[in-house]
Structures are given as structure tokens and as C-alpha cells.
């Protein structure tokens, strides 16, 4: 059976697995440290949390942390780093350091190690071959998608296979091919919206990806669908989609790909709101779902009409 986990980069947001960052780590907090390692992951509420550890430089006793007085606004930090000789670059914004622990080495009093928890709302991972002109498509990722299957009438087919080749000069046939079983699936999981000058796909996320307490969806924009709209317009589309679905879509980031499907930029953000799990368990009240819309074409038509009207009137009415 082919390993499907390697394809999750196409199916869900970047921070589906823990990030470990080990190279060229920089921050105003870390001028007096060395050998730093950052770990980032999602907690049970799908918020981004992290841990940073390393060594204090000789003679230093603690991190360079500002001492704020009561009532003062705490200024968050930015942390940058890389992996694989800068082939992967990371930027972590709005970092707030929490608990810090120190481990002093008695055999070498001049050295000590530290470990600190932190919270953040934004993580960007980029590959060093990335530039904006290479972007072929972009997918925005959301928690709290619709539970009703009436929306998703178009079929997606997935095929997973793996081949292994071994070549040796002494073989009668120089190449031996070992082919694994091919796994195939299909499901009704998306619909296609066509506006006057823009098209996009709204699709469900396979159950293997994302938190199990949420129905997760993506909205896919492609250059060959009329271009990739700016972030503000993508957010506006998510707003009216939330109204149509009868539940608030909670954005958790986006991924940019080139035309060959290679990831270029993976941005992960915190979902907005408190008690996200409870929000995702709420019942949905769509204003448009009824018997007459239980047809794929009708759903796509009404969705497109409402999105077009909203985008046209949003600024005029200050929505």
C-alpha cells in the first residue's frame, strides 16, 4: 500500500506536522544565545504553540527579555530561521515568550542551557526557489466547513502508486522495476464557482487531514482560472461563503504551489475566536439550502450569484 502521508502537502495546511528549525535562528531575544532549536506545532484547539531551546553564551545568566511594568503593552518578537542550508526559510511573527527554565552546568559554571515556551499567531515557511511569478495556484484552508453533503456534487478521483527501480550493470536487464499496489479512491467532495472574471474550487478536506472535530475545507484559486486574487478579496469570498454555508469559516492559513505542484510558500495562522472546538460543533443554518438546490448545478449557480453580488456591494455598504 503506497504511503499517502507524503501527499498531505496538497490536501491540508503546512503545519499539519511539527516544524523543527535548527539553522540561522535570529531574534532580538536571542543575541546572547547559541545552538538554538525551535519546535512548532498545533495544540488541541488548533492554535500554534512552540518551544525554543539552546545555550546561553558564557557569562550570561538569562535571555534578553524586556522587563515590562504593570500595565505596559508587551511588544511581541519576530523569530527567523532556516533548514537545509537555507533551502527552507521560516518567519514567526507576534511571538510571546512564556515560561523559561534554565539548566546550569555545575561542571562548567560559565555555561548554561535554557528552554522557553512561546505562543504565536503566524508562521511562514518558504523555499529558496520561491518567487511570486512561479505561483500556479493557491489554496486557502479553513476549519468549520459545512457538514451537509448537498454542497459537494462534483467527483474527485485520487490514485496513489509507487515504483521502485534498481539498476546494475551485471543484470541481464539492467533495470528492475518493483511496482507497489495502486490505491484508488473517489468521492463527491467539491463544487466549482464561476464568476465573470474569476473561477475557484471549494472542496472538502479528506478525513485523514486536519482536526477530527471539524469539517475542513479549502478554496483553490488558480492562474488559469482567471488569476489569484489578493488576500483582501479572498477574505471577502470566505465571508460570503460563511453566510451561504450558515457557519463561520475559520482560516488557518494558505499554501502557494507552482504549476508542477511544488510548494512555494506555506503560511499557518491561528483560527480566530475562542473555544474553536465548540464553534465547529454548532449546527449550521444555511439560508439557501432546500430541495430546489439539491442539485450540483443549482448550488454552483446560486453560490456564484451571491458571491458576485457581495463582492460588488461590499465596499459600497461598508460590509
Protein described:
Helices cover 12% and strands 41% of the residues. It starts with 18 loop residues before the first strand and ends in a 6-residue tail after the last helix. It contains 3 helices and 17 strands. The protein is mainly beta and 319 residues long. The protein is globular, with a radius of gyration of 24 Å.
Q: What's this entry about, in short?
A:
By secondary structure, the protein is mainly β.
Order of helices and strands: EEEEEEEEEEEEEEEHEEHH
How much helix, percentage-wise, in residues?
Answer: 10-25%
In terms of DSSP E residues, the strand content is 35-45%
Low-confidence stretches: none
Number of strands: 17
Shape: globular
Radius of gyration: 24 Å
Average of per-residue pLDDT values: 87
Helical segment count: 3
Structural class: mainly beta
Sheet with the most strands, sense and barrel status: 15 strands, antiparallel
Distance between the termini: 50 Å
Tags for this entry?
globular; 17 strands; mainly beta
Element layout with pairings:
Blueprint: E1 19-21, E2 23-26, E3 33-42, E4 48-56, E5 77-83, E6 88-104, E7 112-119, E8 122-127, E9 135-143, E10 154-160, E11 163-167, E12 175-179, E13 183-194, E14 199-204, E15 217-222, H1 231-245, E16 250-258, E17 263-269, H2 276-281, H3 296-313
Antiparallel strand pairs: 1-3, 2-5, 3-4, 4-7, 5-6, 6-7, 6-8, 8-17, 9-15, 9-16, 10-13, 11-12, 13-14, 14-15, 16-17
Helix pairs in contact: 1-3
Amino acid at each position: 500500500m503506497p504511503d499517502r502521508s507524503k501527499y498531505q502537502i496538497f490536501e491540508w495546511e503546512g503545519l499539519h506536522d511539527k516544524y523543527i528549525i535548527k539553522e540561522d535562528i535570529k531574534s532580538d531575544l536571542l543575541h546572547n544565545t547559541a545552538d538554538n532549536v525551535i519546535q512548532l506545532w498545533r495544540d488541541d484547539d488548533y492554535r500554534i504553540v512552540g518551544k525554543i531551546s539552546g545555550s546561553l553564551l558564557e557569562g550570561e545568566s538569562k535571555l534578553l527579555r524586556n522587563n515590562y511594568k504593570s500595565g505596559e503593552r508587551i511588544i511581541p518578537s519576530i523569530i527567523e530561521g532556516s533548514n537545509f542550508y537555507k533551502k527552507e526559510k521560516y518567519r514567526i511573527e507576534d511571538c510571546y515568550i512564556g515560561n523559561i527554565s534554565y539548566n546550569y552546568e555545575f561542571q562548567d559554571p560559565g555555561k548554561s542551557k535554557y528552554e522557553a515556551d512561546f505562543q504565536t499567531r503566524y508562521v511562514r515557511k518558504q523555499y529558496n526557489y520561491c518567487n511570486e511569478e512561479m505561483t500556479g495556484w493557491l489554496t486557502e484552508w479553513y476549519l468549520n466547513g459545512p457538514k451537509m453533503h448537498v454542497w459537494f456534487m462534483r467527483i474527485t478521483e485520487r490514485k496513489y502508486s509507487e515504483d521502485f527501480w534498481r539498476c546494475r550493470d551485471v543484470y541481464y536487464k539492467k533495470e528492475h522495476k518493483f511496482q507497489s499496489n495502486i490505491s484508488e479512491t473517489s468521492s463527491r467532495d467539491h463544487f466549482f464557482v464561476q464568476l465573470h472574471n474569476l473561477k475557484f474550487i471549494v472542496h472538502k478536506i479528506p478525513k485523514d487531514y486536519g482536526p477530527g472535530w471539524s469539517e475542513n475545507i479549502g478554496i483553490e484559486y488558480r492562474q488559469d482560472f482567471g488569476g489569484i486574487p489578493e488576500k483582501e478579496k479572498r477574505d471577502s469570498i470566505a465571508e460570503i461563503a460563511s453566510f451561504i454555508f450558515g457557519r463561520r469559516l475559520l482560516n488557518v492559513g494558505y499554501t502557494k504551489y507552482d504549476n508542477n505542484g511544488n510548494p512555494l510558500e506555506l503560511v499557518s495562522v491561528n483560527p480566530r475566536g475562542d473555544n474553536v472546538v465548540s464553534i465547529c460543533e454548532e449546527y449550521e443554518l444555511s439560508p439557501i439550502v432546500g430541495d430546489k438546490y439539491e442539485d450540483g448545478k443549482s448550488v454552483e449557480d446560486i453560490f456564484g450569484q451571491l458571491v458576485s453580488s457581495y463582492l460588488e456591494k461590499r465596499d459600497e455598504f461598508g460590509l
